[in-house]
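User: My instructor asked us to take a sequence, write out its structure as tokens, and then describe one feature of it. I'm not sure where to start. Here is the sequence I was given:
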Amino acid sequence: MSVGSAGLEGFALSLGLILAIGPQNIFVMRQGLKRSHVFATCLACSLADAVLIAAGILGVGAIVSSFEGAESLIAYGAGAFLFGYGVMRIRSSMDPEGFVVEGEASESLSKAMGAVLAFTLLNPHVYFDTLFLIGGASTGFSGDERIAFGIGASAASFLFFFSIGYGARRLSRVLDSPDAWRIIDRGIAAVMFAIAGAIVLPHL
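Assistant: Let's start with the prediction itself. The structure tokens for your sequence are:
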């Protein structure tokens, strides 16, 4: 297989995995809709994925899986965080004056980056996709082909996050309404609760 084909295979696999709606994707779209640190949010998510993909290709997934109870601890932490974030979104939906669509939102950059790291590092599916699935798939390649596979997989993350971040931002004028944001945040809360339950229940 050529280097180009390996890169395309990595790109296709990564894009297929990341297209599933998850808490990280929803957070990026919400930041885009709010026009809140869109570039920094998209870049942070993309770089985090790239680092985890690189770790997966280097074989870190096999090391993590050898620790007994690691998967359960990650799942419980993720469930608690997602439940808490869902509660925050419900509270926000009860305060229409807190929504600002025009210009930059009042949320600080440090708070946004903290949320990005939490959604990334506390999501067990991120580890499964990057460390195990993509990392495992990369073992079928060697040398330059393996590097190309990793670059292709990382490129898919950059394309996806910047697309949904800035794509959502274009809808901000349409959604310049407290009522619209009330519905959006309550919908996000429902998704967060559902994902938290799906993550934790198998480990109870």
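For the description part of your assignment, you could build on this observation: The CA atoms of residues 139 and 174 lie 46 Å apart. Try explaining in your own words what that tells you about the chain.
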